[in-house]
User: What shape does this take?
Amino acid sequence: MKVLVIGGGGREHALVWKIKKSSLVKEVYALPGNGGISEIAFVEKIPVNDFENILKFSLEKKIDLVVVGPEEPLSLGITDFLEAKSIKVFGPNKKASLLEGSKVFAKEFMKKYGIKTAEFEVFTENEIKKAKDYALSLLKKDNFCVVKADGLCFGKGSFVLKDKESTFKVIDDLLINQKLGKAGEKIVIERCLFGKEVSLIGITDSENLLLFLPSQDHKRLFQDHKRLLDNDEGPNTGGMGAYSPVPFFKKELILKAYEKIFKPLLFGLEKEGIFYCGVIYAGIMLTEEDLYVLEFNVRFGDPETQVILPLLKSDLLEIILLAKEKNLKKELEFYDKSCLCVVLASAGYPYQYEKGKKITLKKEIEEEKNIIFHAGTEKRDNEFYTSGGRVLNVCGLGNTLKEAQANAYSLIKEIYFEGMQFRSDIGKKGIDYEENNTSKS
Ligand code: AMP
Ligand code: GLY
Assistant: This one.
């Protein structure tokens, strides 16, 4: 069959790579793709939100299945749009995508269906004083509070705050100054949770749900919670690395998450009359007391996908097709290995950065040790050049997390582009945990 993947980041490179391994696939296409994807799939520079041209392309190429990577086209209703034209799409419809597209919707849904999440309240521009009073009450209780814009903000809409001044500024910026536009017309203010973050990603046909291995992205609890530099210092960025599985999130906790998060989620969706076929991602905070959901995403995580798909033994395309047939009655199988991904970024990222730097790799990749997924790259005259902030996802595989980490970092030594920057501590928290808890786990 012919499969079209929508997107052009590291996540989509991993999706194309995994789908290509299926015996069910004949050709894979990607829009807009990137340099690395263009090596293994047909790409064309059609933007992810250009539904008309995606439709035209799908009809012309006789695409059998569209797999959507990013959240924006899902929230804008790409699934509804293409399916109305009889094109099969894997990804939730517009209504179901509200679980990511509206924090207010997601939080109220969780409250209604008993999914544990941080205590919260919702405010609009007419309720500035109430919003500030509520935020102050949280700051007093916890020394921190969290303010979130309701709508999609590409990772820039949540603020973990620790003092009155910065909290009031964020509230004013969102509700009065409309710094995030419509996305900030409503805000959620919630209690700050403390613990360890885990991403648990599943695939559902609305009735059955299969979970991939847990993974951990690299962010932390301060105002700039996603950090570029070592030890979680530096400005806001997209995820700079990930690893899977997670030593402190073993079978017992996965089962608990299934019972306490995903089961009530499916129950609630059914009660609300929302059909959901696609990927569902729970961003979880494991506190000393319980599992709390920080957020739902309606798609694979980035860079989590780059570490969970290499560990998946099952045929992803077969699983996706079973979900589309509403018959997801299968166990997922995994390799008994670890995978760790380090993101290489352009100089200047996440602020202004230059593009067009030539990328060199001085060594043949050993498949059992490494995979490289491209993000912001393009291919010209048989060479790769940087074309984005996050450039390459260098993955290491190993029998232990430590070995996976060593394999990732040793390949990075062979890669060069001008201004390349990366964190050198990806996986540290997991490895430290493993080393301190081997007798207990
Ligand atoms: P979100 O936009 O909801 O995905 O949140 C982005 C990031 O902010 C999360 O991955 C956490 O690192 C942090 N965060 C969000 N909500 C909370 C919370 N209630 N307590 C602590 N950290 C949070
Ligand atoms: N890694 C976080 C996300 O994909 O939203």
